[in-house]
Specification:
By secondary structure, the chain is an all-alpha fold. It folds into two domains: about 110 residues, Cyclin-like (Cyclin A, domain 1), CATH 1.10.472; about 120 residues, Cyclin A, domain 1. Helix content is about 65%, strand content about 0%. It is built from 14 helices and no strands. The longest helix is centred in the C-terminal third of the chain and has 24 residues. The termini are far apart.
């Protein structure tokens, strides 16, 4: 419509040539007008998608700024445009610690989560961004709000879930972090005598109940093995009962690990070690 209007010079003074010269009304290049319109459309789309995700106006300048940098005056609409905007929204959420996941964004832009993730990776490289690690506390808090966890227990469950993820971080390698986080929430709830169904967690993390169960079993097995290596009553600990000792095991590790690190540092700086 913009291009058609620009080439219609009937009754317009000061119009020079339209399509033939590449200039529109008042001598402005037609492609500049089209580009400005595209920019406005992209900005409007940023606001719409951000609003659907519950992102406030305070974060919009960051989203639009990343989009403008990525598109570099070549404003895309349609599928590609939505994927770029989705990626830039996710970057903003990581930077500003907003509780929005790739799954949330994929539902809003209505494209596969892995496609959004691919554009997120491209955007990180193109914009030369670092330090975009997703804080587990933000993810867990977001998930707890969707689960049937008593509000007065959420802070405690969040803290214990984060401790579980920190202690078992090697398990997360090669696995979707939201599923491991969901399993950590179940284990933290069990440790606090809160019954939570795996099926409900599976819906929140968009995975099967079987997959959530496997991640939970991996976490429990880790703590069973940990208990056997450091606790005197370890022979009584099983996968079915390990949730009872998880809080105490983590407290013990928080005391022991710094002492072990201090001892290792002392040994490394000793003259015998250097020889």
């Amino acid at each position: 419509m913009e291009e058609a209007a620009a080439t219609d010079n009937s009754g317009m003074e000061g119009y020079s040539g339209g399509r033939a010269t590449g200039f529109g009304r008042n001598g402005a290049p037609v492609n500049c007008k089209i580009n400005e319109q595209s920019k406005n459309n992209v900005a409007r789309r940023c606001r719409v998608l951000a609003s659907r995700l519950g992102i406030g106006s305070a974060d919009l300048p960051d989203i639009e700024g990343y989009v403008n940098q990525y598109m570099d005056k070549k404003f895309s609409t349609g599928k590609k445009g939505d994927l770029i905007i989705g990626a830039c929204i996710y970057i903003t959420c990581r930077k500003n610690k907003l509780p929005v996941t790739l799954l949330d964004i994929s539902r809003v832009v209505q494209y596969n989560m892995f496609e959004v993730g691919k554009y997120f990776t491209r955007a990180k490289v193109k914009l030369q961004l670092r330090d975009l690690e997703f804080e587990s506390g933000v993810l867990i808090d977001h998930m707890l709000s969707s689960l049937e966890v008593p509000e007065n227990m959420r802070r405690r469950i969040n803290a214990l879930s984060q401790d579980i993820l920190t202690e078992t971080k090697d398990i997360e390698v090669g696995r979707r972090p939201n599923i491991v986080a969901g399993a950590a929430i179940i284990l933290a709830c069990q440790a606090n005598n809160i019954d939570i169904e795996k099926g409900l967690v599976a819906k929140v993390v968009h995975a099967s109940t079987t997959t959530v169960g496997k991640r939970l079993a991996e976490l429990k097995t880790y703590f069973v093995n940990l208990a056997k290596s450091m606790l005197p009553f370890a022979e009584t600990v099983t996968v079915k009962t390990v949730h009872n000792i998880v809080p105490d095991a983590i407290k013990h590790l928080k005391v022991v690990k710094p002492l072990q690190q201090r001892e290792n540092d002392r040994v490394k700086t000793s003259p015998k070690y250097k020889e």
